[in-house]
């Protein structure tokens, strides 16, 4: 029987009390069974494994890379986000029933104690066809306006117009509970018309579309036409502000005007709620 000669080279470099005759394929150090990591050829020691992992390129999740690619390419990410949240809320509504609708819908007397309803109501819908039509409108007009205005201006237009729709409901029909993105969508239509006219377009088609949809709201029961009126008026005003403050030197005037308009609408909604409660 033959024995291998005893040597420090025959002991694990990390555990000197453990004899081994296995060498790391990369650095040649002796490693025991605990310290071995199987490689394509032979084994590697912990240090070589750590070094190899550190040298590997970091691959980000596909969802992250796709999202950043969409943002950098100018895709209407804000529009897609609005649609995604709306669909998600609608799906939750189907599971949880009317409880979600009651918690998120706009009801004027509750605005003072629950002001977030001015925003959440835009993501709540009453039926499949309700959300289908609204999301189609958001996709068509939102995509165009987001590319024209930029994401921040587009989002300001969408949400301020949506708030305006709720404020109109609180002023004209305070006992009505309202849901849906119609006020915001009519704001997109109003702004789109003003922008088209300001850029030399006729805007007749969009004007006819607005008129037809307003008429449907007046004659079809169950539709909060007040939100349509409030949204389209404020949307047109915002479109006018954007067109009159297009120069870079007027950015702060534009920001102040839109912020002031939004704040004014919120104050009106809160005051109206206090009146209804008093």
TrEMBL record:
It is found in: Membrane. It comes from the Bacteria. It comes from Frondihabitans peucedani. Keywords: Hydrolase, Membrane, Protease, Transmembrane, Transmembrane helix. The keyword Protein biosynthesis does not apply. Pfam families: Rhomboid. PANTHER family: PRESENILIN-ASSOCIATED RHOMBOID-LIKE PROTEIN, MITOCHONDRIAL, RHOMBOID PROTEASE. One of its GO terms (biological process) is proteolysis. This is Rhomboid family intramembrane serine protease. It is a multi-pass membrane protein. The keyword Transit peptide does not apply. Residues 114-244 form the Peptidase S54 rhomboid domain.
